[in-house]
Design a protein that fits this description.
Blueprint: H1 3-7, E1 14-19, E2 46-51, H2 55-58, H3 84-87, H4 91-97, E3 99-101, E4 107-109, E5 114-118, H5 125-131, E6 137-142, H6 143-160, E7 164-169, H7 178-187, E8 194-199, H8 201-214, E9 217-222, E10 234-239, E11 242-247, E12 253-257, H9 258-261, H10 266-277, H11 279-293, H12 299-315, H13 324-344, H14 353-368, H15 375-394, H16 400-409, H17 412-423, H18 428-437, H19 442-454, H20 456-466, H21 470-479, H22 493-502, H23 512-519, H24 522-534
Parallel strand pairs: 5-12, 6-7, 6-8, 8-9, 9-12
Antiparallel strand pairs: 1-2, 3-4, 10-11
Length: about 525
């Protein structure tokens, strides 16, 4: 059993599990009527709120691996994720309402209304368009995703008599940047009232931005279980040579055809697994930031991600053989992680310092043509690096004077020169960010330091509860055939060290490198990581 689950067993952590498959026993007389998309027929979206503390008792598996949803889905419990009123509704109504009132005091929302995960899911696209009042669709894809799914989508639209226009990016190295968004906007047909993105990371990011710019609804047709951005309301874009997360739109519907995504290139399945493994770090750092900075944290949202991560780890060994059940579990986890980020209103539930390694490697590639790989592949290897850093943090003996001396001797001018050397033109936004954020302000540091010193045992407890052993993650990645080290990605020990120390500057988010800077151990941790990366 994962440490994260065991450590949180005393708390109720609800998880939204979406089932879109035939073969699951009927839910009659269980106060949870099946959710059907208008016109879809026998394919049913099944969703349930699961109490992870009781999950093992009620969850069973048949020979096909289909999960049985336990009875009494909406039992009254003091810390239930749903309000009393919402508990009387099924998941279809919850999705239509756009969210739920949480025990944390906030209303968590998502724009996703429909999720279809099944064999032959592309056949449901015309019904989804009709349900969301679309009269004419605009399809965007790239050369690969058009072949993988675009042609099939067009055929089903033709058969159903749904008019559409389309644009296929011809660039074989498409990037989610200003040029791509501009190109899609230029070719957009104003007669279209709904946009269909057909692809995964890059196409989805561009499609969501196009939907925002044109004010249209958005549906994503997934072509690979490669990343967690399908259900999020943001797009990861490149602006002025830096990766940024921009507000875009959340899709109203998500369709993932298992026949298509199970046959995606192996590297895309590995990337999706890497993006899920990153959640170990993101949840840990979210909790640590809550302790140190007071940043908002919701354990119910974190519970959704923990549950999804646990399921993905359990199924990961089947990815190498493209087991459809393993692929289904992975895409469910990625979609749920994206919904969790929408619920939280930030990327906190899904990304931490490991994502910053990936972003920085991408930025350096744009400037210096250094090695770069799929985002999820980089996140997987960077999760190993992050776990090694937290092993270092476990052994730290905090010292107030050491921390104060380190910050006293820190030179922002020297540091800015180093960032420029490391990132070239991509350094400017990072330097500008500090002018407003002022994380290096000595008074702010002194205040954070006192919290860290007084809460050190609590911080260590979080690390122990949330993080697995490094070898566990290495094994999971290896079984899927994914890279497990930065060296496999072409990065030297020096590059790993320098990337690590710059991670504290890329976003306004409290991560491991900021904690180490506050403690005065950043340079030592960088050298430690360099040595680990060279092994």
């Amino acid at each position: 059993m994962l440490k994260t689950v065991a450590a949180r067993a005393e708390l109720i952590s609800c998880a939204l599990v979406v089932h879109c498959t035939e073969g699951i026993p009927p839910l009659e007389n269980r106060d949870c009527p099946p959710l059907r998309i208008n016109g879809v027929g026998s394919k049913v979206i099944r969703a349930a709120l699961i109490d992870s503390r009781k999950y093992r008792q009620y969850n069973k598996y048949d020979r096909r691996g289909s999960r049985f949803v336990f009875e009494n889905l909406f039992r009254r419990m003091p810390n239930m994720m749903l309000s009393e009123k919402a508990q009387k509704n099924d998941i279809e109504k919850i999705l239509k309402r756009g969210g739920f009132k949480c025990g944390c005091g906030r209303y968590h929302s998502t724009a996703v209304n429909d999720i279809v995960i099944s064999s032959g899911a592309v056949a449901h696209i015309p019904a989804l368009i009709e349900k969301h009042a679309g009269k004419k669709a605009f399809l965007i894809s790239d050369l690969n995703t058009y072949e993988a799914a675009g042609k099939a989508v067009e055929k089903h639209l033709d058969d159903a008599g749904v008019p559409y226009a389309g644009f296929v990016f011809q660039n074989p190295r498409l990037e989610p940047d200003e040029r791509a968004v501009g190109e899609a906007t230029l070719y957009f047909d104003n007669g279209c009232d709904i946009i269909l993105g057909i692809g995964s990371g890059t196409v989805n990011d561009i499609g969501k931005m196009l939907a925002k710019l044109t004010g249209r609804k958005y549906i994503i047709v997934c072509t690979a279980p490669s990343m967690d951005g399908y259900a999020s309301a943001t797009s990861s874009m490149i602006m002025n040579g830096i990766k940024v997360s921009l507000a875009s739109v959340c899709p109203c519907a998500i369709a993932a055809d298992l026949d298509i995504i199970s046959n995606a290139p192996a590297v895309l399945l590995q990337a999706g697994l890497g993006d899920m493994l990153a959640k170990y770090i993101s949840l840990c750092e979210w909790r640590i930031s809550n302790i140190i900075t007071g940043e908002f944290y919701c354990d119910e949202i974190a519970g959704i991600v923990r549950y999804s991560l646990k399921n993905c780890i359990s199924a990961s060994s089947g990815l190498k053989n493209r087991d459809p059940e393993a692929v289904k579990v992975l895409i469910e986890g990625l979609i749920l992680a994206g919904m969790a980020m929408s619920f939280a209103g930030s990327s906190r539930p899904g990304s931490g310092i490991e994502h910053y390694f990936s972003h920085l490697w991408e930025m350096r590639s744009l400037q210096f043509h250094t090695p770069v790989h799929l985002h999820g592949i980089q996140c997987g290897a960077a999760t190993v690096l992050a776990l090694q850093i937290y092993d270092f943090i476990r052994e730290i003996k905090p010292c107030r004077q050491k921390a104060l001396n380190y910050v006293r001797d820190f030179s922002i001018d020297s540091w800015n020169k180093f960032i420029v050397q490391f990132l070239g033109g991509g350094a400017s936004p990072l330097i500008e960010l500090e002018k407003t954020e002022r994380k290096y302000d000595k008074q702010k540091h002194a205040e954070r330091l006192e919290v860290i010193l007084s809460k050190w045992d609590e911080i260590q407890k979080v690390i122990t509860e949330e993080l697995p052993q490094v070898e566990h993650v290495r094994q999971v990645l290896s079984e899927a055939g994914a890279p497990v080290s930065a060296a496999e990605l072409g990065h030297s020990g020096d590059c790993v060290r320098d990337t690590f120390i710059v991670t504290k500057d890329i976003r306004d988010k409290y991560v491991a490198s900021r904690l180490l800077w506050d403690l005065g151990f950043l340079d030592e941790a960088g050298e430690y990581l360099k040595q680990k990366a060279q092994v």
